[in-house]
Design brief:
By secondary structure, the protein is an alpha+beta fold. It has 2 domains: 140 residues, no CATH class; 101 residues, OB fold (Dihydrolipoamide Acetyltransferase, E2P). Helices cover 51% and strands 18% of the residues. It has 8 helices and 10 strands. The strands form 3 sheets. Strands 5-4-3-7-6 form a 5-stranded antiparallel beta sheet. A hairpin with a 4-residue loop joins β9 and β10. α1 crosses α5, α3 runs antiparallel to α4 and α4 crosses α5. The N terminus is likely disordered.
């Protein structure tokens, strides 16, 4: 358990610790640059302490904001398909909140300086600087995550020839019976006994001779369960058993009616009429 928790904490602790070390090195480098600039360009002396204080006044707040930002980003879930927009909105919210806090901290620091500019002038000066810093931090975060995240282990590829030789294709089993509702009870009937199937709201009606049975399903679900060679759809609301057809009568408008052996008459739509021709069924004009 201790080992597992340590592995889970690694992607979070590394960026947080590295951000603190990175900003300390940056502040020291900026202070050293100021000392060298004053000595070589301005020909004046400047202590390292004063230069470090100047650098810290500009960027010290990022010593706290960067670990907090990394911690918040690590808490966001990966962008799964169903949560992608929620992930993006949370990411933008974290980034905007960090930018707001950074700008506020810098404005407060400037307000205590002598001869501080007005608020609008401070915002115009501070906002672009903080946006550049935030952008660089986010780029570094993405780089760290690409390095620290474990690579998925790839299984060795199998030879397709050996797979086909060792494994037989798994074919779906043919369903011969179905459990339906009749009155207050249920019974099991065979698909071959069903003459036709009609849509009835959230249910479908199964006609077996003169009896009607109910099944809670959609027409599309029923089509997937039926033996494909025995049943055919003739209308968006009707599916019939080919063996139950007594006669097909064509109509002048191009539609037709299907007379079943049980005496039931069902409409045949134009869009489904061509499918019956594959079974070489003759229609009576």
């Amino acid at each position: 358990m201790h080992t597992a928790s340590r592995k889970l904490a690694t992607p979070i602790l590394h960026p947080v610790g590295m951000s603190c070390v990175g900003w300390l090195l940056f502040l020291c480098s900026a202070a050293l640059y100021c000392v060298l600039f004053n000595q070589l360009v301005l020909l004046t002396t400047e202590s390292f302490t004063n230069a470090f204080v100047w650098s810290a006044s500009h960027y010290a707040h990022w010593l706290v904001l960067t670990p907090a930002l990394f911690w918040l980003l690590s808490k966001l879930e990966p962008p799964a398909t169903s949560r992608r927009y929620r992930m993006i909105s949370a990411y933008l919210g974290v980034v905007l909140l960090t930018l707001l806090v950074a700008v506020s901290c810098r404005v407060v620091m400037l307000s205590f300086a002598p001869l501080s500019p007005p608020l609008l002038g401070m915002l115009i000066t501070v906002l672009p600087q903080q946006m550049v810093v935030l952008t660089m931090i986010l780029l570094i975060w993405q780089l760290l995550m690409s390095i620290l995240q474990p690579k998925p282990h790839r299984l060795p590829e199998e030879n397709p020839a050996s797979v086909s030789a060792n494994k037989q294709p798994c074919l779906p089993s043919v369903e011969h019976t179905v459990l339906v509702t009749k009155g207050q009870g249920e019974c099991l009937i065979q698909w071959s006994q069903v003459d036709c199937i009609s849509a009835a709201g959230n249910y479908v009606e199964l006609m077996v001779k003169q009896e009607t049975y109910l099944l809670r399903a959609t027409m599309k679900q029923i089509e997937q369960r039926l033996p494909a060679t025995d049943f055919i759809r003739i209308h968006r609301c009707h599916i019939i058993n080919l063996q139950a057809i007594a006669q097909i009568i064509g109509l002048p408008a191009g539609n037709a009616t299907v007379n079943l052996r049980c005496g039931r008459v069902l409409p045949l739509s134009k869009s489904y009429k061509s499918q019956l021709k594959t079974y070489k069924l003759n229609t009576q004009p």
